[in-house]
Design brief:
Length: 367
């Protein structure tokens, strides 16, 4: 679902949720969780707010949440605290009888919205005419179910920031070239790490339907979809220069959705799980500047008072759509579940789900 589609969804939850105190909401969420027991599963992405994460049965990065959804056979209801594409993935990987709920349908992902299925089909036609049957499509899980399905139907797979390297390596055992959707930065950073030079990377512009490339097309190894994350693009080289000046012993660690230049100038890059694990293992007294979403950065700062940790961008970068899921929306979604309603159900149609599942399973088999 795109942000434009989301604008047509009736906004807001019943007024009285806003007049409840935090204590009342917390109490009610606890009661519903107790009442539903194992019939309810509540996974939360690391970028979720603390007021939501406190109730999570599991927290994780995109890969862990996909694996956990695939494993859970007990819950009748999965109230997914994350964004739309994650809830779609959970629906694809769980049984038909299990219901996936997203507490606020406006919790989308601006990056996933940068590739729609019509643009993808148009691009594929042009690219196959130019390169023949030499391209394998790979999509970051931050994409719609329709894109995952397209990729699965064409022999490709999904990737996450945790396994992109392994998946790109696998892709080259299948075909000569890859089309990497929709995040050009994760695609570029991963391919470069594997030794593919920038001059072998072309960029597909889905707005003008043009391939941006100066050299000989025969040399193209990677076609990067021109999409990005509006949160991670806000980390800049100036931020890195500033923090290195102010904290000379700092370690800069960023998410690979940051630009190539930022990743190159950082000390470490990795998924949200990799960032959490690295800081956890770091010695007491060490200094860190983290380039990722602010709810996670704030949580890491609180959990490690023995380390000096700052956000790489002092104007902290929130993911506004992740932040749509708050305590009132969570309580409302749980109230609806507790009264037997399937409000805000995320249901991927069977045809789309079939090939999307192939793309996800090719990744999960190798992850
Ligand atoms: P992770 O897979 O690292 O959790 O990242 C998901 C995401 O949306 C980052 O913006
Ligand atoms: Fe999407 Fe970026 Fe938010 Fe992740 S941080 S959910 S990629 S908009």
């Amino acid at each position: 679902m795109s942000i434009l589609d989301a604008l047509h969804i009736p906004i807001g939850i019943p007024e009285h949720y806003h007049s409840l105190s935090e204590e009342e909401m917390i109490q009610r969420v606890r009661e519903i969780k107790k009442e539903l027991g194992e019939r309810l599963y509540l996974p939360a992405h690391h970028y979720q707010k603390d007021e939501v994460v406190q109730f999570a049965d599991d927290t994780g990065d995109s890969l862990q949440l996909a694996q956990l959804a695939a494993k859970n056979k007990k819950a009748d209801y999965i109230v997914f605290c994350g964004v739309h594409f994650m809830a779609e993935t959970a629906d694809i990987l769980t049984e038909d009888a299990q219901t996936v709920i997203l507490p606020d349908m406006r919790a989308g992902c601006s990056m996933a919205d940068m590739a729609d299925i019509h643009q993808t089909e148009r691009a594929w036609k042009i690219l196959v005419e130019r390169f023949g049957d030499t391209i394998l499509p790979l999509t970051y899980v931050n994409s719609t179910a329709a894109i995952k399905s397209f990729v699965g139907e064409n022999g490709g797979a999904t990737v996450t920031s945790s396994n992109a390297t392994a998946m790109v390596e696998w892709a080259y055992t299948q075909k000569e070239r890859i089309l990497f959707l929709p995040d050009q930065h994760l695609g570029r950073n991963t391919a470069y790490d594997l030794g593919i030079p920038l001059k072998a990377m072309a960029v597909w512009d889905p707005i003008s339907d043009r391939l941006e490339y100066d050299g000989d097309y025969e040399d193209v190894k990677v076609i990067l979809w021109k999409g990005h994350c509006s949160v991670h693009e806000k980390f800049t080289l100036d931020n890195i220069a500033d923090v290195r000046r102010d904290m000379p012993d700092v370690n800069v660690i960023v998410h690979p959705e940051c630009t190539f230049e930022v990743v190159q100038k950082s000390d470490y890059a990795g998924s949200t799980k990799m960032i959490i694990d690295t800081i956890e293992k770091a010695p007491s007294g060490s200094s860190w500047a983290i380039g990722t979403e602010m709810n996670l950065v704030n949580r890491i700062i609180q959990q490690h008072p023995d380390k000096r940790i700052v956000s790489l961008n002092p104007n902290m970068c929130p993911c506004l759509t992740m932040n749509r899921i708050d305590l009132p929306h969570l309580l409302w979604a749980l109230d609806e579940v507790s009264s037997g309603k399937k409000t805000n159900q995320i249901k991927v149609d069977k045809k789309t789900a079939r090939y999307a599942k192939d793309a996800l399973n090719r990744m999960l088999e190798r992850a």
